[in-house]
Write a structure and sequence with these properties.
It is a single chain. The chain has 147 residues and is mainly α. Mean pLDDT is 81; it is low at 1-11. The chain is built from 5 helices and no strands. 8% of the residues are buried.
Amino acid sequence: MLKRSEASGGGGGWSGLAPPQILQSLRSFQNDAEEKIELGLLEQFGQLMAGPLAIPRAILAVILVFFVPGFAWTLVLFRKLDIPERLALSIGLSIALVTLSILVANVVFKIPISGLSALVIILLITVIPLIWYGIRWWLSKRNARYV
């Protein structure tokens, strides 16, 4: 491929190659590296999604990403909603909250985006409003006994 000039004292440039040839060699190296990375990622994804649990895992992921966080927040933020309104709002809130939370975690806190980090963030943005809702429910029950 590319041969470094030994005659130039060890520090001198690329001998015998014109700039277009150097660029072509670098592009070839880059393409080879990208192909290996893509094959590795596709192989990992194939192993992850293979097997008898692929469909239940996908269904659970869709529910966890597109519904659960928004539903938890609608319980806290909107006390008097009908079921269709709560369901529609849950989907919209989930999409916005999950996307923005993962983006903020990556940009502000330098947390790399991966399946595990996304799962932890989704669980966190789901558990926080559920704890808040539970405390509010417990306090309302306690206050109702004394009235």
